[in-house]
Amino acid sequence: MHLKPILILFLRSTTSIFRYIRFFNLTEHRLRAGWRLLAHLALLAGLFLSAAILLSPLQVNSTGVEPDTTLLLIDSIASLFAITASVFLARRWFDRRTFVSLGLVPNRRAARDLLAGMGIAGLVIGAIYAFEAACGWLRFEGFAWQSEMAGAITGNLLLYLAIFIIVGWQEELLSRGYWLQNLSEGLGTGWGVLISSGIFAVMHVFNPHASPIAVILLVGAGLFMACGYLRTRQLWLPIGLHIGWNFFEGPVFGFAVSGTGSFTIIRQSIIGPELLTGGAFGPEAGLLILPALVTGILLIYWYTRKKIGDADAPRAGLPKG
Asked: What are 228-239's pLDDT values in tens digits?
């Protein structure tokens, strides 16, 4: 007589437990990797909306000689807040790990990796410039100091360096930090690197002058950055690579930075074939970027040949996963 209610209660409890197990990793006492990523995306969207609302008066009232640059800086600060806060909170709430364990251990290698990454990126972009100039694909138009004062040049360089530091930090924290590492936990390192690099490429799909080939080749740029993380298990090297890539590409050598313009020391225009040079989008959209990225990866392997990450970055003593 009383078996039916007991059976129904048992079935409901079993179903609830089954659903709970699908969402939750009982061994690690946290959400599974896929659900952690979805929860983080929801958190990121909420913080982006909050930052946009808070900074909207600044965007409306911004004035100055270069309003576009001011707006770019404001947007960078908004995304810096949203991305950093979302990853920090998601790491604590969903991952149940520390923020530092993403690969942000402040040891003696951090500054060295940052500078090495910027140097490697500078060499790669410099090689692209030299090759295109030698092929007659660039029309040199002069240097910034021929038409601007030293103070203005210094101010613009520092401004864009600050912007690119913000961009390098937030995009690597997101792409090679939270996304790559959670995807790797759920699907394995190979798929984690490939999918996170694909997402990184798609993030640029609405940039000016973006094209399908640009998005495809940006996957290669993502793999290049990921190589820096995989070799050190820290984010400092890929952050340095990202900062250096943008800074040398735009302000130093005068290319477009993924479709966007910037202040430049070298004034030049591209007259070579767009398929090879990338045209108005920048070198990332040209086939010439492929041997350049291979060169960059070889430089990363040379720099990390003594496996600097193993001895100095013990993941802050945290458990795996």
From this structure: 999 999 999 999
Domain membership of residue 147 (yes or no) is yes
Structure confidence by residue, pLDDT tens digits, 138-184: 999 899 888 888 888 898 899 999 999 999 999 999 999 999 999 99
Q: How far is CA 209 from CA 5, 264, 279, 293, in A?
A: 65, 19, 9, 21
Tally DSSP H helices, then E strands, for the chain: 12, 4
Do residues 222 and 291 both lie within one domain? Answer: yes
> Pairing relation of β-strands 266-270 and 24-25?
unpaired
Longest dimension (CA), the chain: 97
Euclidean distance between CA atoms 267 and 314, whole angstroms: 45
* Domain ranges, residue 51: 30-101
> Whole-prediction pTM value?
0.84
Determine the Cα–Cα distance for residues 279 and 270; give it in Å rounded to an integer: 6
Nearest to 123 by CA among 32, 245, 281: 245
